[in-house]
Design a protein that fits this description.
The complex is a heterodimer of chains A (296) and B (186). With 296 residues, chain A is of the alpha/beta class. Chain A is 47% helix and 10% strand. In chain A, helix 3 packs across helix 4 and helix 6 packs across helix 7. The model of chain A has no long low-confidence stretch (mean pLDDT 93). In chain B, helix 9 packs across helix 12. Chain B starts with 5 loop residues before the first helix and ends with a helix. The chains are: A alpha/beta (296), B mainly alpha (186). The complex binds iron/sulfur cluster (2 copies). The site of one iron/sulfur cluster has 15 residues of chain B, from helix 3, helix 7 and helix 8.
């Protein structure tokens, strides 16, 4: 595979904590596929939602510190698995194209950002730079017999002018990856609905309701598992699934994977490497069923 | 909601200010209601998002800045994506909370305190320190952590760290916050 698949990698704060299995599986899968991820040295928090609710120059500065570090690495593309980090980095990149905003933000920084970096999600480079054909060809253990739905969450593709990838109402990147790797992907009508985002702690009732709806529909269409690309979505649906059951009287038992975890299985890597033991709702039954259909 | 007497309370400066800070042309909103129809949070809002747009057009500064909705908006970008007039509605919601903050409103205190605890954590460590953030949030709200049931689920997974990740650029981050405070005082 070509040398051009080299990127500056931004893991994001949750990647070192609550979504470590996303980070682990992302790194392992990329390595296996010949994609080189070099960590941005001494990266800092992008400010997430709280920063942009306070001020856009503050939020942009927190993100731009990282973009400026990428410039120093002599790489032009930064990638991150987390849609929330992606939004912040991309919004900073976008806003700082205007001279006035760039000056204002650079005043807050020790080292100025000159505007030479573009940011993409890992999902985007897998589909656009590596391509589905390569994924199909690398598949060793097809995800046969696995019925899943892909859930993108609200901000992976929106607003389209900023995110500039896939369809804002009907994204297909994850669906296509999972299909290429052998899974049966069911149409999921709520693929871009919000899960309740970071309101889990300050307004749990909101998350119970919104994530509860996502799980209800997943059960209604009969999936074995939901597949996500966002640490917040995954946490609300997986970690809080028992809370949602008690709040809404439901009896969901739906494993919630990161798409990279299932990719890893399809690429022949082991469960431990994919951090399968970090999931709250046990994926055991689902993982054991992969490929079984054929043997009948 | 009651009837608004706009002749008495129309605040032209407010309208101009929102337009300036958001870079959006407010007069483009013709109240189609698309943003509200797609907003997942309408059930929790005191004023639906399209109505907020109308209130801003009508210069109803107090009503808008005091409302709960702007603190419950998750910036899901659904309104912005679906507005037929390409108004960046989510951006306007962001600008309204910037203004509300400056004027000292916090009608949903748990949300504000959570965001503040988060930013304190970034300011002090350079990255978010999840356990520290929770402790600070509990201290700020005086509420006991309502997620105690999650403890046994998370702790054995080895995902929570009890010490912050130290980064070398920690002071650079502190300075970003400091300079921001100084700039906003100007
Ligand atoms: S979608 Fe746009 S035009 Fe329609 S009500 Fe909302 S802001 Fe106004
Ligand atoms: S961005 Fe905010 S106001 Fe707009 S649809 Fe989402 S939650 Fe509602």
């Amino acid at each position: 595979m070509s040398d051009s698949l080299t990127y500056a990698y931004y893991p994001g704060c949750s990647g070192t904590g609550t979504s470590m299995e996303y980070d682990m599986s992302t790194r392992a899968v990329c390595e296996k596929l010949g994609i080189r991820l070099t960590d941005i040295p001494d990266w800092s928090c992008c400010g997430s939602t709280p920063a942009h609710t306070v001020d856009h120059s503050l939020s942009s500065a927190l993100s731009a510190r990282n973009l400026q570090l990428v410039e120093k690495m002599d790489l032009d593309t930064a990638v991150t698995p987390c849609p929330s980090c992606l939004t912040n980095l991309k919004s900073a990149e976008h806003r700082m194209k205007k001279d006035e905003m760039r000056e204002k933000v650079n005043k807050l920084l020790d080292n100025p950002y000159n505007g030479g970096v573009s940011t993409k999600s890992v999902l985007q480079i897998l589909v656009e730079d590596l391509g589905l054909k390569a994924l199909k060809e690398s598949t060793i253990k097809p995800l046969k017999g696995l019925k899943v739905a892909a859930y993108y969450g609200c901000i992976m593709n929106r607003p389209p002018e900023v995110m500039n990838f896939d369809d804002p109402e009907h994204p297909m990147a994850m669906d296509n990856i999972l299909k290429a790797m052998g899974a049966t992907v069911l149409p999921y009508p709520l693929k871009v609905e919000c899960c309740g985002a970071s309101f889990g702690i300050p307004r749990k009732d909101v998350v119970m309701r919104l994530s509860g709806k996502l799980l209800d529909v997943a059960d209604d269409i009969g999936v074995d598992a939901l597949v996500t690309a966002c640490p917040l979505c995954q946490m609300n649906l997986d970690l809080r699934q028992t809370q949602i059951n008690s709040a809404t009287g439901a009896k969901h038992n739906i494993p919630i994977f990161y798409y990279t975890q299932l990719m890893g299985i399809a690429l022949g890597m082991n469960e431990k490497e994919m951090g399968m033991d970090k999931l709250c709702v046990s994926p055991r039954k689902v993982l054991d069923a992969i490929g079984k259909e054929e043997k009948k | 909601m009651g009837i608004v007497n706009i002749t008495k309370t129309y605040d032209a400066d407010f309208v101009k200010q929102v337009e300036k800070e958001s870079g959006q042309d407010l007069s483009l909103c013709y109240q189609c209601g698309n943003c509200t129809a797609g907003c997942p949070y309408t059930f929790a809002y005191d004023i639906p998002v399209s109505r907020i747009m109308r209130m801003v057009q009508a210069g109803q500064k107090d009503t808008v800045l005091k409302c709960k909705s702007i603190w419950l908006c998750a910036t899901c970008e659904s309104c912005t994506t679906r507005c037929p007039n390409n108004i960046d509605v989510a951006h306007i919601m962001d600008v309204l909370r910037h203004m509300a903050r400056r004027e000292g409103y916090a009608p949903v205190p748990t949300v504000k305190k959570f965001w503040d605890s988060f930013l304190d954590s970034v300011e002090n460590n350079g990255r978010v320190f999840e356990v520290g953030l929770l402790a600070a949030y509990v201290a700020k709200t005086g509420r006991f952590w309502t997620d105690l049931d999650l403890g046994p689920k998370v702790l054995p997974k080895g995902k929570m760290h009890f010490k912050p990740h130290e980064i070398q650029g920690k002071d650079e981050i502190k300075k970003i916050f400091k300079r921001f405070q100084e700039e906003s005082r100007k």
